[in-house]
Amino acid sequence: MWEYTDKVREHFLNPKNSGTIEGDDTVVGEVGSLSCGDALRLFLKIDDNGVIEDAKFQTFGCASAIASSSVLTEMVKGMTVEDAEKVSNQDIADALGGLPKEKMHCSVMGQEALEDAIRCYRGEEAAPAPEGEIVCKCFGVTDLQIKRAVIDNKLTTLEEVTNFTKAGGGCEDCHERIGEIIDEIRFGVTELDLKPLVVEPVKLTNIKRFQLVSQTIDEEIRPALHKDGGDIELIDIEGTEVIVSLRGACVGCPSSGVTLKDFVERRLKETVEEAITVREA
Amino acid sequence: MRPVYLDNNATTMVAPEVKEAIIPLLEEEYGNPSSMHGLGGRSGKYLSEAREKVAAGLGCEPSEIIFTSCGTEGDNTAIHSAIESQPTKKHIITTRVEHPAVLNVAKHLERKGYEITLLGVDSEGRMDPDHLREAIRPDTALVSVMYANNESGVISPIEELVEITKERGVLFHTDAVQAVGKIPLDLKKLPVDYLVLSGHKIHAPKGVGALYLRRNTPFRPFMLGGHQELGRRGGTENIPGIVGLGVAMDLAVSHIDEENTRVRAMRDRLEKGLMASIPDAMINGVEAARLPNTLSIAFKYIEGEAMLLLLDQFKICASSGSACTSGSLEPSHVLRAMGVPFTYAHGSLRFSLSVYNTDEDIDLVLKELPPIISRLREFSPFRRGDEGLDWVDDH
Lengths: 281, 395
What we know:
The structure holds 2 protein chains of 2 kinds. By secondary structure, chain A is an alpha+beta fold. Chain A has helices at about 5-15, 65-75, 80-85, 90-95, 105-120, 145-155, 160-165, 175-185, 205-225, 255-270; strands at about 25-35, 40-45, 50-60, 135, 140, 230-240, 240-250, 275-280.
């Protein structure tokens, strides 16, 4: 059984604002489908000043989906459209006192329905097909949707991407591609960038090696880690062994070993010399 | 207020008789049956008596019983044994509706180079013996088909399937975890090679099970260790659990008639009552031979977890094949294999009864579930007539 907060239970057992709103000044946002196991139809009544006067919902889904819908309608009532536009899925989860990590996609559904309703309010296409390349065929999730979830929520693992977007939760064929997308966002590199450079095998002097290592860290590795809230410091170089210290969000990150081996060391091998090894001080 | 427990295919309460038999083993009778002293000797005697009871319940010899920790261990052991003892055979046949204790072993073996044939079922959850006949090859090491399905309750045509495999000289394993104690089972008449049962599905505690191994069937131990279980399963025996399993097996045999009369009648009353009072509902496997205690029912346009949590308000315990209850994102592989549309699959409930249920339990569900369904349907964005809409996307 899932461990739900009291707020989730309360919003599930006594949902606020369930139902529909009729009228010309009502806009509707729709997300999800029966095949995906959850769907939300959000009704917003917006006045002439762009203030959300009323909000109601209809939800097909689990307790988290119903609670997310209920709390979302409570949150946006009285907001201007501009302010409502800033409501994130994390805001919805926070308002519920948190959701089980496997249920975060329910909060994402709330955010997407809100965006859909606002698009409708602005006269834009109500439910445009998601842009980008379909990565997860089971749940129809595109690379752009995955990238957005990774950036917005600082996701670092496949499991987290599945929890937030459902991508990868079906046949698992897309797991490798999702991993690549995570790497692209986290490390700021594309598959193209990762192709080994043609480096003539020259014997480096200690000074030249230090310069190249230092330059690669400053210009490529550190900026990439910064994107994820992390940092790296060059401590020393002993022969071909590069000694570094991770900083910021990289400290204590369960994937720090992977970062050092699969990103830092690999990049230094490509740009400096093949014999380079990296270890943490 | 006691819970109305209708989730017996998940686990069962420990029977009072079982509990009573176990307590002395937790207090004063704690010997190791391998020890050379009186205390150990008495434990060895308890072990032998339990083995005789389990064998009697299945209609086999005590020496054909290996005690295990659970059904999963039994399934893993049987499959492992079959392939290890026939190293040149690299093909295994099983079904799409097996328990993960078999399906995930098959997936694992596929990664190791084995070829796996997964037989399908029809919309009622029934498998066609002709499909097995066509699938068997000279290099087939094992056929593994569950005796009865844990979700739909659909019973496999085991006698016919075993006959087909015997004709072709192929080993046969059946996961009988859900069948034992619910339908009559006699291994004198059913020549399976391996059969698996689990204690906690028949009112014994969790952590004990048994693997039936037909005499002269090739065997390779899965758990390597000491000489316990005639060297077929290392590890000090779980004597309290095993003794509990022996008592539970006696009880299960004595309950078979009641399962097929009173329990079946309660299940049928629940089924008919819900179908009569709730529109847009369907019974999964309604046309098939089913376990007497199991009802898999699905309600259109709503989701299972929400129903379970609302039922829990009334202390009614059931299960769902919906995605949200499992941590998975797709509904039950069994319902999908049966081709149950998503509209229904997400809204499925499983009620599984036992002899400890009463008519009052059924009355409570019949009273409380219809308003829960109505309430959730009020929230639902889907209605009758929505099937043609793009965003319904039912298949």
